[in-house]
Amino acid sequence: MREITYEEATLEAIQEAFRRDPRTIHLSTDLYAELQDEFGAERIRVTPIAENSFVGAAIGLAGSGFRTVANIRMATFGFVAMDQMINHAAKIHYMFGGQAKFPILYRMTVGAGISAAAEHSVSPYPMYMNAPGLKIILPSTPYDAKGLFKTALRDMNPVVSFEHVALGGMKGEVPEEEYFVPFGQASVRREGSDVTVVALAKMVYEALEAARELADEGISLEVIDPRTLVPLDRKTIFESVWKTGRLVVVDEACQTCGAAAEIVALVTSNTATFGRLKAAPARVCGLDVPIPFSPPMEKFAVPDKAKIIEAVREVLKS
Amino acid sequence: MENQTLIELYTTMLTIRRFEERVAAEFYAGNLFGFVHSYIGQEAIATGVCRHLGPEDRIVSHHRGHGHCIAKGADLKRMMAEIQGKKTGYCKGKGGSMHIADFSIGMLGADGIVGAGLPIATGAALAAKLEGEGKMAAVFFGDGACQEGEFHEALNLAAIWKLPLLFVCENNHYGVNTAREYSLAADEIIRMPKAYHIPTQAIHGNDVEAVHRAAGEAVAALRGGDGPYFLECETYRWHKHFLSDVLEDLRPREEIESWAQKCPIAAFEAKLIKRGVLTRADLERIDAEVLREVEEAYQYALDSPYPEPEDALEDVYAS
C-alpha cells in the first residue's frame, strides 16, 4: 500500500470534502496554497490573527448552512478562542433546542517534545472533554488521521481534532480508496494478556515500544488507542481489563482531571470491571507543571517508554 | 414613506412594547424566572432595521433580544413559551429569555455573552456573501460590547473581507450600571469603525423613521457589495439591566425620567396623528389587536407542558 504522511492524510480528507460539498469553507491564519489553488480564495480563506473571531465565524457559517474547517494551529491559541469554543460552539445546538446544526472541524496541534516551552506545548483536550457538545478526536496514525477526518467532515457537530505536533511528518499506509474511521471505536494496537495499556496520541508509540521490550521478558501488554475521546469506546477498554485485570493509562496531558483520570474512573466505578481488577490502575501522565523549555526538564515532564515500563512493573506486583 | 410602512413600523414597536410589558408584569408577579432583559425604550432600533430585511437575511442578537425576534417576525407564542420554560418554546425550554432563536426566519439567536454575537455574525455575513444575490446579515449589540476585543476583531474581519454585515450599535449608555463615558476611552463610538474604514451613521435611536432611513441607506450599500456598514443608535433602556427585585439601578433619576420623555412610541404616535396617517380610534384598534396577540401568546405558553426532566439529555449532539 502507498505511504503518505499524517499531514498529507489530513489534507486529502479535506480536499475530498471540499470537492464533494461546495458549501465547505476553510479558515486559518496561514495560507494553504494547495487548497487555495484548487478551491479558490473565496473558500480557502486566510484570517487575521484573531482566533476568537474565526472560531466564531465558523459558528455563523454553520448556522447559515455551511461547513467549516477552522485551523487554529497550536492548541495554545485555542485558549484565545475559548469564549466562542465553549460558550457557543459547544452549546449552541443544545441551547437553541436542536433547531440548527453546526458542522465544524476545529483543528489544533498538541504536545511537547520540540522545545517550544510552556505556552506552545500544551495538551488541553481534557478541558474540552468537560464541554458537552464537542466531539473530540485524537488521531495517532496517518490512516486514522484521514479516516477520522473523513468522518468528522460528514458529522453535523463541532468536532475538535487534536493532532500531536510530533506526528505530522510521520509516514504510514493510507489506502487510495475511500474509507472512514468511525468515532467511538478504539483500535487495539497490540493484543496482549497481562496488562491493558490505554495510550493517547503520541503515547501510543511509547506504549508499543514498552510492549516490545517487555515481551522479551514474557510480559504481554495489550495496547489500546481510543482514537476518539468523545465519544469514548468504553467497551473495548472494559473488555480488555476483564481479560488482563490490570490497567495503565498513558497520556501526555497533565495528570489532574485528565482523560486518564476519566478512563480510570470509568473502569473502577463499573462494578463488573472493578471486580476483575487484580491491582489498582495506574496513570502515567504529564507532570502537573507547565512544560519547561530546556530538553532535560522537558523530557522529565512527559511520559516515555521507561515510565510506562515502570508503571507496568508496579501494577504487576499485586 | 408609504403609510402602510409607517403603520407596520408602529405596530411592530407596539408589539415589542406590549410583549415586554407583559413579561415584566409577570416577572414581578413572581410568575417568571431567570434572567430577563427588557427591550423597552429601544424598540425603534430593531423595528427600523429589520423592516429592511427578508427571511433570507440573517441577524444575530444579544441578551436583550426579544425586540429583535419580534421585529424579524418570530412567533410570539413560541417566544412566550420559551420564556416560561415550556416544551413548546423555540428552544424547547433549553434557552429561556436570553437565548431565543428562530433559524427558519434567519434569527440566529440571542446570546448572553456581551460581544460574542459579533464574530458569529461575521460568519453569517460571509455565508451571505458566498451565497450572493444581495444577501446580508445584521448584528445588534450595545455600547458595552464595544469594550470587548471581539468587537474589534469583527470590525476588522468584516472590513478586510468586505462582508455584507450591518453593525447596529444600540448605545444605551450603560453596561449594567457602569456609564460608557467611564468605560470607553473613545469619545464617540463611530470613531472606532471609522478607523477600520467602515462607513458610519450616528442617529437618534428612538426615532424610528431616522433608524429606518439610515438602515435603508446602509442596506442598499451592503446589498450592492460595498462591504460593512455601521449604525450607532443612541437610546436608553427603561428597566434595570435585567428584571430583578435585588439589582439596583444606579443611573441618575433625572436621566431616567428625561429619557422616558423621549419614548420612541409616543413620539411616533404623535407624528402619525399629526400627519393624518392614523386616528386615535385607529391607535386604539391596533393596541387592542396587539394586546390580544400578547394575551394569546401568554395563554398558549401557560397551557403548554413543561419539558420532561429527561429531555435535558436530548440535543447535546446533532445526528
Give your account of this protein's structure.
The complex is a heterodimer of chains A (318) and B (319). Chain A is of the alpha/beta class. Chain A has two domains: 3-173, Rossmann fold (3-Layer(aba) Sandwich); 187-313, 3-Layer(aba) Sandwich (Rossmann fold). Chain A has 14 helices and 14 strands. The longest helix of chain A has 15 residues, at 6-20. Chain B is an alpha/beta fold. Chain B has one domain: Rossmann fold, CATH 3.40.50.970. Chain B contains twelve helices and seven strands. In chain B, the strands form two sheets. Chain B has a five-stranded parallel sheet, sandwiched between helices. In chain B, α9 links the parallel β6 and β7 (229-234). The longest helix of chain B has 26 residues, at 3-28. Chain B is globular and about 50 Å long. The model of chain B has no long low-confidence stretch (mean pLDDT 97). At the A-B interface, α3, α5 and α6 of A face α5 and α6 of B.
How would you describe this structure in keywords?
heterodimer, A: 318 residues, alpha/beta, Rossmann fold, 2 domains, seven-stranded mixed β-sheet, five-stranded mixed β-sheet, B: 319 residues, two-stranded antiparallel sheet, 12 helices, globular
Q: How many helices of chain A in DSSP terms?
A: 14
Oligomer: heterodimer
Beta strand count of chain B: 7
| Number of beta-strand segments of chain A | 14
CATH superfamily of the largest domain in chain A: Thiamin diphosphate (ThDP)-binding fold, Pyr/PP domains
The total of helices of chain B stands at 12
CATH architecture of the largest domain in chain A: 3-Layer(aba) Sandwich
Largest sheet of chain A: 7 strands, mixed
Give the SSE string of chain A. Answer: EHEHEHEHHHEHEHEEEEHEEHEHHEHH
Give a brief description.
The complex is a heterodimer of chains A (318) and B (319). Chain A has helices at 6-20, 33-39, 51-63, 75-78, 82-89, 92-95, 125-129, 142-152, 203-215, 234-244, 259-268, 271-276, 295-301, 305-315, and strands at residues 3-5, 24-28, 44-46, 67-74, 104-110, 135-137, 158-164, 171-173, 187-190, 195-199, 221-225, 228-230, 247-254, 282-286.
